[in-house]
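Email to the structure team, subject: Glycolate oxidase iron-sulfur subunit model.

Hi all, the expression group asked for a predicted structure before they design truncation constructs. Nothing fancy, just the tokens so they can compare against earlier work. One-line instruction: predict Glycolate oxidase iron-sulfur subunit, return tokens.
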Amino acid sequence: MSLSQKSHQPESNGNPVQQLFHSTYALTNKCVQCGYCLPVCPTYDSMGKESASPRGRINLVRLASEGKIDIQENLKNPIDLCLGCRACEVACPVNVPYGHILEFAKQAIEESQKEKERAVFGERMKRLSLMKLFPYPERLRAIGNLVWLYQKSGVAKFVRKTKVIHRISEPFANLENVLPSLESPGKRYKWGTVISAKGQKKSRVAFFAGCVMDALMYRTNRLTIELLTSVGCEVVMPQNQTCCGALHAHQGLLEQAKALAKANIEAFEKSEADFYVNNAGGCGAILREYDHLLMEDQHWKERAARFVNRSRDISEILMQYGPLSYRKERRGVLIYQDSCHLRYVQGVYDEPRHLLRSIPGADVVEWEDSGSCCGSGGIYNMLNYEESIKILDKKMEKVKAMGATTIVTANPGCLLQMRLGAERLGLSNHMQAVHIVDVLAEACGFE
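Reply from the structure team: attached below.
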């Protein structure tokens, strides 16, 4: 640490301000405030104020780390309103690691809030979900089973007709309304299972099932495995895998995120797989940053680096071991909506587009807004509903103008958000929002 940095350092020891200073001061000073990040920031575009921009937030983090502004009163709201899409990192000419600054800021906010009364219902529910639900796969599976029963029994139709959920929570009601129809829980692959490759075995891969994907979109997970085996991959379902920790890291619960990372590293190491494959852009992003998450842990950092080197998105594996054997044509105009974390954190851009264009009859149209955030941002759309809707509606107007019949994405949050967008525009009867795995599987004849 330089003398100039020491001169700004708060004297208090072990408090959130001190922690923020140690973790972010050098990083925030890399920002030259040039403004290249402004045009790509969805919240700056929608709010039009400096505190809603990456450089504005970086400046606020710096001021908070110096003890010049209050973490709760001045930093929390601007940071909470950030989607964390990380498009700014790609635009930045000096490579400021904005995503890491954001995580450390979230951690400081969380730490500073621990001793205060958590009276807000949303905060209580958020913390309860992150601590008591997402780290426990069997609990999430139980919820998924209940949702399937809820849909199958016809109760869902009654609830939607009465709009009872809207009276409790508008964001939750919208989420319930755009959930896909779940198939029987009996079709889920059991963890610990090994699924043989079809034809010649080319590789052994371990599949990361995820939380939301495993609980509510397990049909897409099943089809992911079908696609992998079809290109010659033997698929292992690691027995003790758990939540990736992305939501925890994004909400400042870094210690919990680290614990989940260690559990996953250990589980996947036992698989003896060549690659660790996922189908959710947000999950994949943090899986590829486990080395950063555990960089200060001497016992785990090398194991984390090996885990990162083996982590792949499903599109990368299909491109590596394909081509896919298609049996059906796809009609209509398809547009691809990038998952921010798949594109900007994992650097996966060409592979999904190439796969979609390889489908017989597919009319895949590239659009200029494909790389801008849809407003989902993990649980951002639940915590900052009105702002997420502003971002979504603006994007969907452009989708409507293109005459698209199918919006393809590669992340569960993005998928639900785009389905909501189509619903809000009254386009859901002739415009689908689907996961790329479902599109590819249908073209291959998998059901």
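The chain has four domains: 12-113, 121-178, 185-319, 326-443. The chain is about 55% helix and 5% strand. Ping us if the truncation boundaries need rechecking.
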